[in-house]
């Protein structure tokens, strides 16, 4: 329950259509793509940086949690109001402040959708590389808070590499301005990157200076079918050893392919047990040599066939077919997005197979193999207590394997609430303690997204 | 003067060839490329991370300044022991811990030279993009501490984009491990980037995981001569508007060209008043279309001629000729490395011309125009008090112009001691205060490179 005085002050400052307190209205802000539910006590929709400063100052005075929120597409529970408080929905800060093609920069408010940025950049021959699968729906504020990536990160990097500067409001309601407007700049500490991926625990982003990238002139696809997993992982390593990085290198394992076959029986050859979808792009109209080299890199023992798919729709057909199926099984899966060094993928995927066999679990693995970023899905019946317990033990071993291989527990989804129990597997206590102290510095009363990102 | 007990403890822990206290020995660690002189009270040469922890713990106990130092090539005075204390020379931590071409990673100690990393990467078809002009001599520790850039940053970015993780020791002697070994990773706060460019004020880097980039297959050069500055700056804007970024886009103004003519009368056509040296690279052997587009972009009114220089030695001839001349006039120049948005370069360079005329100063401007990163050199007689005063007033106005154009005070040299008086022009007091508090968190007794980076 919010303090009455705080409610009164907020009611004075915000019209009722920008300050929800009715539980029915608030309920839409109780969940995200983690499928957990924690209703906020209120929802606020700021329109300006000044309003965000005012809200946070007030909440800081009353020690009330503020849970900043983009469009709620995160899978790690980062926007869940676990301890109640106010959901700070940035969805109405929708202005693109400037489009500056000469300097390859767009300045935008956090509620602007990723897709809107792409639409603003495209007429000038540019795009903004972060491409989470939610790009048409998710906002740049959320993308920045999680350092979102996607299939094209293998060539273009993640959000971290594509933001020049930020305006943000700390847990004391103070406005800070980080970074610069130019591609080079070394004045002061890099607070921009410190905020990127901090999941709203340090400050609320109210403006972002985005660095644009030129759209490639030519894009083509390659699909490669393999009779066995090991040949496929070898091909991944081969492709990543080529000088020119592919612009996407997506992997589907046998479990994923079987899931697709269940719905679309004729889409995939029966003998395909692992598959790659590769995109190659370039500034030259002639990328023949890149295509030839990539096709060649796919020629491992178990290759059934690899072919160019100029129609990128055809390229992504299998991956797109998988999406709704994954949504259908959504409540029945544990979804992780671990990363391992590319050359350990064969060992990692083999390890996954043994672990799922050992724990008698079904799993479906796919993802951004070019970054070694694999989405591991354990398919479980959430009502089967014994199976859930087995899945948890399996997950624990999967994470240990990831760390053993010098990988990381999350490549793009973040920690949020879902993965915080495992953070200490990756980050030592001294470093973690320093991070906690940084959190305290930005947010002394722990009101910004409390409980997230750190182990309990 | 160092506390006697500290000296005793250090003498017990380090042999005399790794602990200098004789002022004559220490003097070599009193200066860097800023041409200021501040002798340390002692110099230590750690060989391991553990030793660095031990040294910093001790100094923290005695509140003695530690000035971490790579190879002393910085121009901003970042490695000067202004308040005495111990120069911590990392130059003997020289191990390349691993070269991992399959994952495009080299792990190295901070004393390893940039050139040594290039030599280790090259046989595998890779390079490490940061390329300060000191690359053959400077160390990766120093490169990371300053987020070094160079001519190729226009396409490949600066150090910030090419480090995956770090080991570092804070001002309390605690070892922290930041980042990860993979190209994606979002677990915890991005302390890697926080340390990059922090000029040894937060922690001493003892190990770095460097991300490698594939060497281009084809590299070619273009030189373009212009009859006037304005046509040249227009060409810069045109080149930067092309989809494919040049791999270098270096600019020399009339002052620079005249300096070269004074020594090499026949090197440059007399009617050239501004010049561009452009490098174009690619993975295809055929980069004809990029070259044609770049040549075309140079076609402004005042273009005298633009031509391809396949021999990159020829390309850099004028720039290389400038270097020793700049060294000769070194004590008589104030060298800045400001950055402005690329499309404001015409306005900025025009502004520079008026300012130097107004203050009756000679200046020489050149640099990494593709990033808008211009090295502004005011040529002054350091013994002429009145001229020095004029130069200081001029510099102040130059910085104001930079900020007005949304630029930044330093693109690659950093703040160190040289530019700290101006930091408040760029960073507001709230943000600066937060940075000061971060410094306090990492280094509560202000022993790590005290006085640097922040305004006095």
Automatic annotation (TrEMBL), chains A, B:
Membrane-traversing stretches: none
Matches recorded under Pfam families: FAD-oxidase_C, FAD_binding_4
Alphabetized UniProt keyword annotations: FAD, Flavoprotein, Oxidoreductase
Domain of life: Bacteria
Record flagged with keyword Nucleotidyltransferase: no
Names of the cofactor(s): FAD
Keyword Oxidoreductase in record: yes
Gene Ontology molecular function: FAD binding; oxidoreductase activity
Record protein name field: FAD-binding oxidoreductase
């Amino acid at each position: 329950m919010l303090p009455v005085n705080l409610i009164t002050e907020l009611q004075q400052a915000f019209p009722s259509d920008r300050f929800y307190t009715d539980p029915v209205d608030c309920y839409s802000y109780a969940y995200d793509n983690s499928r957990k539910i924690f209703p906020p006590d209120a929802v606020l929709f700021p329109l300006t940086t000044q309003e965000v400063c005012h809200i946070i100052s007030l909440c800081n005075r009353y020690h009330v949690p503020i849970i900043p929120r983009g469009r709620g597409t995160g899978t790690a529970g980062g926007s869940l109001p676990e301890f109640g408080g106010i959901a700070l929905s940035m969805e109405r800060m929708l202005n693109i402040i400037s489009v500056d093609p000469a300097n390859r920069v767009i300045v935008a408010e956090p509620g602007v959708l990723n897709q809107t940025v792409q639409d603003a950049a495209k007429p000038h021959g540019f795009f903004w590389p972060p491409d989470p699968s939610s790009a048409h729906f998710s906002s740049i504020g959320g993308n920045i808070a999680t350092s979102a990536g996607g299939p094209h990160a293998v060539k273009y990097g993640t959000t971290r590499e594509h933001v020049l500067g930020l305006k943000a409001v700390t847990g004391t309601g103070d406005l800070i301005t980080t970074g610069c407007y130019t591609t080079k700049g070394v004045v002061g500490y890099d607070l921009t990157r410190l905020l990127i991926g901090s999941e709203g625990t340090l400050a609320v982003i109210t403006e972002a200076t985005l660095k644009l990238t030129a759209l490639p002139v030519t894009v083509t696809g390659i699909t490669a079918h393999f009779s066995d997993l090991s040949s496929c992982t070898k091909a991944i390593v081969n492709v990543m050893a080529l000088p020119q990085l592919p612009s996407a290198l997506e992997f589907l394992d046998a479990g994923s392919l079987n899931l697709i076959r269940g719905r679309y029986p004729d889409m995939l050859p029966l003998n395909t047990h692992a598959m790659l979808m590769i995109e190659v792009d370039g500034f030259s109209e002639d990328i023949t040599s890149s295509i030839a080299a990539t096709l060649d890199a796919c020629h491992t023992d178990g290759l059934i066939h690899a072919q160019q798919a100029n129609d990128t729709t055809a390229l992504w057909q299998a991956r797109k077919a998988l999406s709704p199926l994954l949504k259908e099984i959504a409540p029945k899966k544990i979804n992780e997005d671990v990363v391992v060094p590319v050359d350990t993928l064969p060992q990692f995927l083999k390890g996954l197979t043994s672990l799922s066999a050992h724990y008698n679990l079904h799993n479906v693995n796919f993802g951004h193999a070019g970054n070694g970023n694999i989405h591991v899905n354990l398919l479980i019946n959430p009502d089967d207590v014994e199976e859930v317990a087995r899945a948890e033990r399996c997950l624990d071993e999967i994470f240990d394997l990831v760390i053993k291989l010098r990988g990381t527990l999350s490549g793009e989804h973040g920690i949020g609430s879902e993965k915080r129990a495992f953070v200490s597997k990756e980050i030592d206590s001294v470093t973690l303690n320093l991070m906690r102290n940084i959190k305290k510095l930005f947010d002394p009363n722990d009101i910004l997204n409390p409980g997230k990102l750190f182990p309990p």
